[in-house]
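can u do me a favor
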């Protein structure tokens, strides 16, 4: 496993991180999840990404139970705050009240004293950015979190957070967690440059587009898969994208690697990317993904991939 700095900070994370979205505390049983988490750590994964909303707090509990046998300082644990956790009108968003109350609940569920990274899980248009920035900075001062970040924020929202932090001599965000992969490249135009400009790391989620970039949907949607059980993939399961995935699969086979490994290595081609966060429901799946760390793609391969993604032929 290779490791990268999170932006200009001193924090280092494994190139491949493990995420708990749509898996732990939900479809994957606790015992199976624990086995996968422990296997990942034993293979060099040091970053585990959670959120309070994942399975309504259950993912935090599952991860917390699984990591107890490991040395806390060896791990980088993140969680997130924003989405409603109850019907209470204040149990949502990025107000100071919600942030301060949510961090204590997350720490209790995970069973740890601090988070390495605490993400604002979306932008909150109802709360002044200054209020959010100062609350997150205060959590760093209190030792409850070490760094804070944004997730799925627009470039101008990131800019505002950095500007407010400078004005109030507060800690600015150190990392953004966006949706990014071969089929979803929205961040390249403005968000990625903003992160680079401010020295923020980029920890991407859904690097395999919920399995689409593994090729398992090339011949339809098998029962029991995420494509069959969730609506997240509906806009990406198109004939055009399937054709691209099939062509990318040929490129991967020519290199002697899997399509998933190709897709992850393509993301990690960029030095500004800190890591790719993968989900795993089986240890074999996890091990395949972990092998993407360290794969370097030749320029000719990157150009061939670009032709495929832009609609050309391989």
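np, heres the sequence
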């Amino acid at each position: 496993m290779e490791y990268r700095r999170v932006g200009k900070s001193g924090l280092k994370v494994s190139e491949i991180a493990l995420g708990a979205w749509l898996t732990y505390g939900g479809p994957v049983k606790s015992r199976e999840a624990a086995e996968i988490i422990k296997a990942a750590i034993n293979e060099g994964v040091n970053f585990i990404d959670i959120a309070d909303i994942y399975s309504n707090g259950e993912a935090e509990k599952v991860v917390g139970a699984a990591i107890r046998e490991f040395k806390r300082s060896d791990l980088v644990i993140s969680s997130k705050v924003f989405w409603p956790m109850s019907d209470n009108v204040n149990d949502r968003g990025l107000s100071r009240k919600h942030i301060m109350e949510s961090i204590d609940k997350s720490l209790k569920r995970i069973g740890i004293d601090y988070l390495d990274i605490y993400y604002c899980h979306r932008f909150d248009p109802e709360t002044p950015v200054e209020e959010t920035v100062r609350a997150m900075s205060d959590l760093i001062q209190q030792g409850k979190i070490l760094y804070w970040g944004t997730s799925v924020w627009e470039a101008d929202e990131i800019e505002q957070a950095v500007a407010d932090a400078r004005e109030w001599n507060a800690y600015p965000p150190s990392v953004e967690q966006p949706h990014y992969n071969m089929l979803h490249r929205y961040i390249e135009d403005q968000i990625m440059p903003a992160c680079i400009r401010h020295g923020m790391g980029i920890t991407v989620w859904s690097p395999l587009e919920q399995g689409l970039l593994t090729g398992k949907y090339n011949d339809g949607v098998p029962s029991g898969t995420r494509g069959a059980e969730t609506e997240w993939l509906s806009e990406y399961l198109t004939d055009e994208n399937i054709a691209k995935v099939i062509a990318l699969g040929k490129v991967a086979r020519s290199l002697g690697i899997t399509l998933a490994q190709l897709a992850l290595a393509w993301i990690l081609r960029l030095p500004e990317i800190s890591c790719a966060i993968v989900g795993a429901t089986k240890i074999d799946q996890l091990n395949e993904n972990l092998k993407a760390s360290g794969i370097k793609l030749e320029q000719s391969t990157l150009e061939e991939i670009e032709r495929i993604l832009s609609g050309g032929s391989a």
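The chain has a mean pLDDT of 93. hope that helps!!
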